[in-house]
Amino acid sequence: MTEASDPGSDSDFDFDFDLLCELTEASGVPGYEDQVREVVRRELEAATDRVRTDAMGNVVGTVEGDSDYTVAVAAHMDEIGFMVKHVDDDGFLRLDALGGWDPRVLRAQRVRVHAADGDLTGVIGSVPPHTLSAEDREKDDSVERVFVDLGTTDPEAVADRVSVGDLVTMEQSTVRMGDAVTGKALDDRVCVLAMLETARRLDDPAVTVQFCATTQEEVGLRGATALGGDVDPDLAVALDVTVASDVPDVDDDRQVTRLGEGTAIKLKDSSVITNPKVHRRMRAVAEDEGIAHQFEVLPAGGTDTAGFQNSHGATPVGAISVPTRYLHTVTETANGDDVDATVDLLTAFLDTETGEHDYTL
């Protein structure tokens, strides 16, 4: 465990918190997942029989089983971020979003600009309320109005170092907070962690398991869709975070999941309806093993689950989700016991997969 934990917390996690920090604090916007990919490759090389990457940057670690029946387990590496689209005459940067941002959360955030000769610290600027006109106060926030201030009075120095196409990510550390962890990019690095932890624990499976760290999920499930055709599994299980809006002023029916009530077995989101036989077996495994769980019916949002379902013919799919508050912000928050439950359920599900279950409907 890290020494930088919340002094008010006495909760212990079974998962590797230091690895979670390394994964979440690495930068990796869609299509440029290089930093986090290096970490994933290192961990998979230690835990699987062989590792490969493809032209989209997906990483696949294979654990050979006793049969040719193949299960793909997928979690995406990319995080939402930005690409520089313009450097103005005063040295401010204008951005194009990579993934879905709520512009309300962007004001006054610190960012990293990944320039060719090294990272630069910047802040997303905001106009003080003291000088806002009545008209300005009524304007809705939008990503198009966001600008990055690099803190220099020398615009030429900015133009010399920053180019159109440079990447921008949020600056935030991952810390423990009570029974939870909070930071940037838990979507979906906390699930990458769960996948890696499971790869470490899986011992002599009856089936071959392909642990897939995918790319470009935040811009349309692109890596998983391509990988579904390449891997062509007999069964696919995706891991992602899901909405936990169990906070004040949100009605119960809109909360989706709640922190501390266990891992979430996905029934549907806007991109997929999971195979009923798969999610029923997940529930049975959770009940048999005494693993805390809940069910996820997500009204909006897609996951890599859909990328595998029909990219190379019909494939039975299931999904396990980590309930997470404040998604697509720099303070995404997940309960540590829910993360442990996710690892426990995935491990137990794979340990009991024989390749003989009939998932046809």
From TrEMBL:
It comes from Candidatus Halobonum tyrrellensis G22. GO terms for biological process: proteolysis. Zn(2+) 2 binds at residues 187, 218, 328. InterPro entries: Peptidase_M42, Peptidase_M42_aminopept, Peptidase_M42_dom2. Binds 2 divalent metal cations per subunit. It comes from the Archaea. It holds the Pfam family Peptidase_M42. This is Peptidase.
